[in-house]
Amino acid sequence: MAKLTSSLFLVLLLVLSMTAFLAQAAPFEQVGSKKIIQLNYYLIEITSGPNATLVSVAGIAGKLWAPNTFGTIFVGDNLLTEGPSTSSPKVGQVRGLVVVSSKDGSANYISSSITFTNREYNGSTLQVQGTFNRNSRQPSLLSIIGGTGKFEGAKGSAFLQTYSSSITMSITRIIYKIELYK
């Protein structure tokens, strides 16, 4: 169990540097006929303990289901906040899948749906997918492949990067900063 928790921490720390979003929406910028919106939020992920928000659900038989084990599948239901703290105002939820998709365990495929609950974007969603390289210190670039509500027909990019991580009382908390461009 300790080995799984430790491995899960490392994978989630480096794998999901994706799921933290922008703290404030920047003003609209007009580029040709397209509007560009920059959002900065933080994804709060808890990888262990009774309130875990990311858990392994499947993997290769006979192998440890861990963040760096090829074939391991995780599901997540993570908090999206304005700032890098659980006490920051909530702006939504990030729900989706993470699959360890490279044999060496360094790359993870991510597919997530971001549901906004803040006033400006309440009820709107963004769909994000792509590959996160957990061994890189650089932000990973993910694709925005659609949306609903105020983000209907959205296309663009999301940058995912680990903001911070901590282990307290057997709970691993990872915070990701996500920047979205529509």
Summed over residues and divided by their number, the pLDDT gives a mean of 77
Strand order of the largest sheet: 3-5-6-7-8-9-10-11
Biggest sheet statistics: 8 strands, antiparallel, barrel
SSE pattern, N- to C-terminal: HEEEEEEEEEEE
Proportion of residues in β-strands: over 45%
Shape, principal axes of CA atoms: globular
Question: Radius of gyration, rounded?
Answer: 16 Å
Total of helices: 1
Please give the share of residues in helix. Answer: under 10%
Distance between the terminal alpha carbons, to the nearest Å? 41 Å
Low-confidence regions: 1-32
Subcellular location: Secreted, Extracellular space, Apoplast
Subunit structure: Homodimer.
Protein name: Dirigent protein
Keywords: Apoplast, Secreted, Signal
Folded structure, characterized:
The protein is mainly β. It contains 1 helix and 11 strands, in the order αβββββββββββ. The strands form 2 sheets. An 8-stranded antiparallel beta barrel has the order 3-5-6-7-8-9-10-11. 40% of the residues are buried. This is Dirigent protein. Homodimer. One of its GO terms (cellular component) is apoplast. Belongs to the plant dirigent protein family.
Short summary:
Homodimer. With about 180 residues, the protein is mainly β. It is about 10% helix and about 50% strand.
